[in-house]
Specification:
single chain; mainly beta; Jelly Rolls; six-stranded antiparallel β-sheet
Length: 155
Amino acid sequence: MEEIIFTKVSELEAVHENEHKDFEYMKYELLPKRKEGQSRISIYEVPPKKAGYPYHYHTKNEESFYILSGTGLLRTPDGERTVTAGDFIYFPANEKGAHILSNPSETEKLVYLDCDTCNEIDVAFYPDSGKIGIWGMNIDQMYKISDQVDYYDGE
């Protein structure tokens, strides 16, 4: 970005994602459409008993969460821990950065600021389901890792 951006969250149109019974969120993009090399900064609201995304890690994009309100249950390769308002979490772009943040509350939503690096292409792994996702450069695809083929297959 080459200019100052002032954003009022209450004036943003939220993206609602609710495609699976265990995963749901409202997402507010704080920056306009980003370019490669720029950060993506969003506010997520996760309803009670939901998570935003499945357990995963990236190979290029780093993520950082700052908990604004509510209580979350964070699972990483080191186990589970409770996170609350004021907690900051950084996830490196490798297996050690695997994570899922869920909302264990019965009534209160979990709200957090999500700051991501944005690389031209990123690959994410989903250890629990054996999937791999590829994003960037007009690619938005998911595959089962078990479908892997030899480099020369079909050549």
